[in-house]
Specification:
Strand order of the largest sheet: 2-1-3-4-5
Helix content: 55-70%
Radius of gyration: 27 Å
Strand content: 5-15%
CATH architecture of the largest domain: 3-Layer(aba) Sandwich
Distance between the termini: 97 Å
Number of helices: 8
Number of domains: 2
Largest sheet: 5 strands, parallel
Order of helices and strands: EHEHEHEHEHHHH
Shape: elongated
Oligomer: single chain
Number of strands: 5
CATH topology of the largest domain: Rossmann fold
CATH class of the largest domain: Alpha Beta
Length: about 220
Amino acid sequence: MGIERTGVTDLPAGLPTAVPPAVHRVVVCDRDDVARRAVGAILADEGVEIAGSVAETRELADLVARGKPDVVVLAVDRADGPDVDALVATAALRIAPVVVLATEATPALIARARDAGALAFLTKPPTRADLLPAVELAIARYAEIAHLVDQVAAISRRLESPKLSERAPGRLRPHRRMSAPDASRCLPRTAMDRRKPAHVIAAQVVAELGDARRDRAAS
């Protein structure tokens, strides 16, 4: 007996299909074993992968460096203790954002966590309704910050490129005993031969032969 299909048709070839959300990886650090397991259980129930779980803050930075998680959840007790030192060290790695779990939300602790690099702040024990949005928000904000940093670096490189292109011929002239026109033509010709941007070749020349203006200033 045949079954008639109604209301559903095959999707045309080439139509985009839904992409499942990325699975986040998290490292959890809390001296309180019960609290640490509870946070891990909440995140695991929501499909988050537990990349590492540690009690001692002195082990956190190394675990993050090895595990490369998407986010770190760190319990902080005081504004002046080793927990904050671990927060500073972890944020300095620039691998993942840090969500702070604190026993209380004092102004001093909030300010210290913010200045140390935390991107989200929750009080313990966190609820499922609070923890998941904090993790997602921290990851999103971290991605935005990383994108802005990349943009600033790219702009800096573009601004520096003309300066390098101006300085490089000045280093080639005495080194290869070239005339000014020959030195200026040498850079784009070398860039074409090596299939590299001219500013990359100019940067290599300045790095290898030094900066003529700096040499004159030193003399």
